[in-house]
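Reviewer 2 asked us to include a model.

Predict the structure of this chain.
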Amino acid sequence: MDRTAGKVMSMREAVAAFVHDGDTVSLEGFTHLVPTAAGHEIIRQGRRDLTVVRMTADIVVDQMLAAGCVTRLVSSFVGNSSAGSLGELRRRIEHADPEPLAFEEYSHYGMVCRYLAGAQRLPFYPLRSYAGSDLPAVNPGIRQVVSPYPAADGGTERIHVVPPVNPDVTIVHAQRADRRGNTQIWGLTGVQAEAVYAAGKAVVVVEELVADEVVRSDPNRTLIPAHAVDAVVVCPRGAHPSFAQGYYDRDNAFYRSWSAISKDPARLRAWLAEWVYGTADHAEYVARLGEGFWAGLAVGEALSEPVNYGRRL
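Predicted model (structure tokens):
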């Protein structure tokens, strides 16, 4: 694929082209801009034996687990975003019910370092924050090396390192992009850029597609440049129940309800049957919720002040 040409495709096309059984798939977005619609399409297409890499494994991971898509999870946090628990994930880790889940646990910063190593094609990344932690004892991927430089006291120093992560594909959600894939994000960001650069392929899902001139008018918001992007998917409201700054608010009621839904396996599978398998795509999911529902998540304007980038006279 010409990585500077137009790359716009449907979610169905993007998942079919870039997510395959057995792949390592990164789904990133930190509280904000969670790629939920992408996770749902992976479920609809029946992908299996995936390794999912997500710093904050939350509702979308719980749903993908319940759908039988995931056999390994690499994460630094699992939970229902301050609103409760993840029933499917707990059943699999605590009771191997209905089957076990392989789980690799790192700290948040450990995951950031893994993405940095992957993006820079480094063999490992050093960090100090595992001193005194129990994580190295339960995760053999966290190791120690002898620093080639003297410690502050002149002696030898051993330091923890983490391995790179290089997903087959990274999928992120963002506010907007142009047809080539220059992707702009504002508000709360995470490791989207690092996760994209670490991956073999990258899919960006956006609230809206904008003209090239819009991106050029505000270049500092371009977190992910076109050359790193393989596909652009336009999917309004595709981060629900998380939020997209400037587009819609977080659906806190859904987060609060998820613990009860996921606690009951039958109820969880009924939810998947109705809201994922029972919808042809995310547009139908959005329409089924109804405009009255979306009006309740509407946000008002909070405009940024314009800046003058200047131009040559």
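The first helix runs from residue 11 to 18. The chain has a mean pLDDT of 96. We have added this to the supplementary material.
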